[in-house]
Every structure is written in C-alpha cells, then in structure tokens.
Amino acid sequence: MKALIVDDDFYSRNMIHEILRPVAHCDIAVNGEEAIEAFRRGLVQGEPYDLICLDLLMPELDGQQALREIRAIEQEFDVAPQAESKVVVTTMLDDEKETHDAFFLGGATSYLVKPIDEEKLMNEVKSLGLL
Q: Which pLDDT belongs to residue 57?
C-alpha cells in the first residue's frame, strides 16, 4: 500500500506515520499544495496513492481545497471511480458542515476526528479494503 499523510502538525503526521509504516510506504506533505504536487507526481510515475490521510485545517491551501484538486486530477488522468485513492479526512473539528463538505463536495471516503489512535485508523483502513 502507498499512503500520503497530509498534516501541518508534526505530532499528528508522526503519529499517523508510525501507525501506517508497518503496512504502507508513506510519503508526507505539510500542506495542501505539497499534497497536490505529490499526488500528481504519483500518477505521472504510475505509482498512485492507495490511501491519503488528509487534515482539513492547514495554512496556504486547506484540506477541502486540496481534496477537490486531487479528485480533479484523478478525472484528468481518467482514473476509474473504483481505482480512486481512498481519502480519510483527519481533523480536530467534529463539525457537521466540515464533514458534509468533505464528503459531498470533496469526495472524501471517510472521516476521523483527532486524536487518531492506532485501532481507529487501522479499522478504517481495513474497512476500506486496503489491508
């Protein structure tokens, strides 16, 4: 499995990386712009991400904007819906509007509220069929 961890918070990035490292090759981005660059590069190189853990609140380009751009890039590359990257939104916000926007406007696959623990994240990854 190939995973992209996108979070501006060092602790959160490190925690998710430690959880996923035994089961995935992990790349890290600290904001939405880096995430979009990494995502596009993966598709160009024929090595797309299976999983993206994406924080919503980040400086420069937030997770909502990054997610919409990632889905647009998948369309640009004619990625079939069943082959799209699974995007798990990770955020401190337990906010219904943010959840709604991430799923219905951005195309998120699932949503986890921080702090992320190993059991919660691994259960989500398994439920997405990635393990």
A: 84
